[in-house]
Amino acid sequence: MTTRRLFVALFIIALLAMAARETLDPDMWWHLRAGEAIWEQGIPQQDLFSFTVPHHEWVTHEWLSQAFMWGVYQLAGLSGLMVVFALLITWTFWLVYRVSAGRPFLAAFVVLLAASTSAIVWGARPQIFNLLFAAAFIHIIERWKSGEWKNPILLALPLLMIVWANLHSGYLLGVAILTVYAVGDAIEHFSFQRSAFSIQRSTRLLFAITTASFFVSALNPSGAALWIYPFLTLGSPSMQAYIQEWRSPDFHLAMFWPFGVMMALGVTSWLWSRQRPSWTELLLFGGTAAAGLISARNIPIFAIVAAPIISRHWLNAATGTRAYALLSGEKPEPNLPAIMRTVNWAVFVLAFLAAGVWTAGKALENEAAIAEVYPVTAVDFIEEAGLTDTRIYNSYNWGGYLIWRGLPVFVDGRADVYGDDFLFEYRQTFDVTANWRGPLDKYDVGYVLMERGSPLTVILAASDDWDEIYADPIAQLFARTSDETP
Predict the structure, then answer these.
(1) Angle between helical axes of 299-317 and 257-272 (0-180°, round to 10)
(2) Rounded CA gap, 47 and 34, in Å?
(3) Do 181 and 284 fall into the same domain?
(4) Whether pTM exceeds 0.90
């Protein structure tokens, strides 16, 4: 094995090890139960899991992801789900790497930084398909623009769009990417008087593929209504106010620092590069960076879009220097003696085994990790006490887990199903406002299950109307006093 191949292998192993993490996403639990319902009953049209809004419409825009997740779980359990999504993440950034200049060394560095930037949303969740399909779109377009692939490859994009539109409502990102490439090419043509027929034709082809991709996205259970759905989500005041990943990144937190580094690397690469950034690059980089600054959940998209741009311009900046041959991958690799090739193989095997042990360790620790985040023993108590049919006011973050355990919930992570009015009503109690008792009485709540030490539990502990009937380091459970009726 050559040193360069060893480096690429270690790069892939590093991606896989980074992506292997416990199944702790709060929405994963209800996604699994939704997948189970889809396999057994078909795609639901109304809420199945709450006692508060069972009549509300449920636009199951992630139905194919949920069916996929349930299928994986049935075959391999939570550990299998963890491994499969780690492989999807690795595949995503391999696609980004393949269209990044300066392979293997420069490209690997930039893509690993991009992976670290996007890691804030990693887990067993449908959003990972957004990253994968965004990377696939960038991959196909970049290889087509470079001349490596011919025009027919663009026909794959509308076909991918049909699948994407059934995996997640973020499919419009694909349309946006195509639009930016088409508009960027058009601006380049008109700005610099490029009259070559091939450029004009390629721009028209991009616009045609963009249009086709938009219209075929209506081939989903919700039809053309799904064109509007993402905008309703983006415009939800309650989601913007209360869901953390919809907020702007807080750069006091270390997890957002790679995002800042990537933005800085991109801007400085343009300053040092001998080639000006194209309009397409400016629109892609600037647009996704702005989106990431507005909402943290958009940061991974920036990472995928920006990595090829950054590597391309830093490689261009190295033109004429001694480092260029190495960074570009053009430096001839010396013939290694047999002993060195054997050493390289040994390093590869050790790294592969280490990654396997690391992933197996994550799988073995998964149940313990879940118990540190979710009210596992509290729900055990509820089941043993025969309280599963009693209405519970629960933490928003735990709603998905309660659904997984078969409890009807007050609220869970499907904010779009509950609607703004209900979520604001929910927060009346959660935030301990003047009318905090109102929602508990209105929905005939008999028990409250919240994180230990939360403001609501402090109020309930001081109230004569509620008794603490269970507590552990994770959760507290309160019941109405025997003579208190809503």
Answers:
(1) 30
(2) 10
(3) yes
(4) yes
